[in-house]
Design brief:
Length: 443
């Protein structure tokens, strides 16, 4: 069974493709995009990457050829996307696709204050249901990742300024949405179904303010304001008028209940609850730290990715065994594989943080040029709690004081405290000793 994913180079499309590669042979996955080069890595893994442009319908029948089920990811071309979706549905019928799964929006009705963002997916739902093709609709709640900008702004200003009133929102992570889509595409029994794919809990403005404070470590006060005042505040800080109106409409839609949808469909599909928005924000905490540096809230921080003896599970990456129990692996292959997957995930978050710093201008360079970040662990081998030969990474230029692309191997049984002495001296602390240090490490 060949499965097509449209918009495969986008955020959601890539996540769905990754999920499908865990469920299908790669030769059964067809990825359609206007930017095939952006999917070279997935192509190298065996997926069939094809060019297709919804604005050029003639390209679509060949792009969809051989596919039996298709994920039609709603485009972001408001004003054109109903026409684009019609072209994709018509081409799917011509190409012999039997079942189309469409990513829609909660409350996709004309009365929704967010306008075309909701109305156009609703029009596409109706069009798909009239097409004669088997269909399934996935109505996604607001993506939890969209809480990052307001969380960062609230942390910077110490206030959450909002017009959402007593309304509530139910965010869900893109990764969870991708998993729901992949399961719907690869299992039976979904024809003619509309699933509301939402987070586990509806959050009020007060809940969000508490959440932002908890995740960022900064006090956040809730400041409710009217639609009119929010629009003028946004325009006053430089927000373009159309964007200010859209942000205001989003808050008004929440206030009127259009985002207050909590549904068990995700758990029924996947067999697990959706990831809480707090966990999503924590997974992206590096982005919040980068914002704190950009705004000069702080230039010094410590960040622990996982607590000692943590029993946390990571359903977002398919690791369901508690972290601490898994770390005592006893050379069990399944535990080792899970531990590798988790360590890779944590390292990828760190890499994303470094890339954010590298791409953020700061003076005559970037934040990464002017910073120094130590990344590592207090153990080199968790099963035996070994503290020997700790792998430690230093990243950043420290304003020209650090030379990169080096592998430094310290003498056997050198205390990690020696590195701390050297780092302190790099920062001008003039340290002679730190803890159990016996000297320094040449860095």
């Amino acid at each position: 069974m060949s499965v097509i994913v449209t918009g495969a180079a986008g955020h959601l499309g890539r996540l769905v493709a990754e999920q499908l590669l865990e469920r299908l042979p790669p030769e059964d996955l067809i990825l359609v995009t206007r930017r095939p080069r952006a999917l070279r890595q997935l192509g190298a893994r065996g997926a069939d990457v094809r060019y297709g442009d919804f604005d050029d319908p003639a390209t679509l029948p060949d792009a969809f050829a051989g596919g039996r089920r298709m994920l039609l990811i709603s485009t972001d071309a408001m004003g054109r996307r109903v026409r684009q979706h019609r072209a994709a549905i018509d081409a799917a019928a011509v190409a012999g696709v039997g079942h189309v799964v469409f990513t829609s929006h909660v409350s996709p009705v004309t009365a929704n204050p967010i306008g075309a963002i909701a109305r156009e997916p609703g029009e596409t739902e109706a069009m798909l249901q009239r097409s004669g093709l088997a269909w399934t609709v996935l109505r996604f709640g607001s993506f939890a990742e969209l809480q990052l900008p307001p969380a960062a702004t609230a942390a910077i200003n110490g206030r959450l300024v909002t017009n959402m009133g007593d309304g509530r929102i139910v965010p869900i992570s893109r990764r969870d949405c991708a998993e729901a889509a992949a399961i719907t595409l690869t299992t039976d029994g979904h024809t003619g179904q509309t699933y509301e794919i939402t987070g586990p809990r509806a959050l009020s403005a007060g809940d969000l303010a508490e959440l932002y404070a908890d995740v960022t470590g900064q006090p956040v006060k809730l400041v409710p304001i009217s639609d009119w005042l929010l629009t003028w505040v946004l325009v006053g800080i430089g927000t373009p008028w159309p964007a200010a109106l859209d942000i205001t409409a989003f808050g008004r839609a929440i206030r009127r209940g259009y985002f207050d949808v909590v549904d068990p469909a995700f758990e029924r599909l996947t067999g697990r609850p959706p990831v809480a928005v707090r966990d999503v924000l924590i997974a992206h905490r590096a982005d919040l730290l980068a914002v704190a540096w950009e705004a000069n809230i702080t230039r010094v921080f410590t960040y622990m990715k996982s607590r000692d003896a943590s029993q946390r599970v990571y359903p977002n990456i398919g690791v369901m065994e508690p972290h601490h129990a898994m770390s005592h692996h006893g050379n069990n292959p399944d535990k080792l594989a899970g531990l590798v997957k988790l360590n890779t995930y944590h390292a990828s978050l760190f890499a994303r943080f470094l890339e954010r710093l590298r791409s953020t201008p700061d003076g005559d360079g970037s934040l990464l040029d002017h910073s120094l970040i130590l990344y590592g662990s207090g153990m080199s081998e968790s099963d035996t709690h070994s503290r020997l030969n700790l792998p430690t990474l230093l990243a950043g230029g420290l304003a020209g004081q650090m030379k990169g692309n080096r592998h430094i191997q310290a003498a056997k049984e050198t205390p990690i405290a020696n590195l701390m002495v050297s780092l302190g001296n790099k920062f001008g602390c003039d340290l002679e000793k730190f803890g159990i240090s016996t000297g320094t490490v040449e860095i």
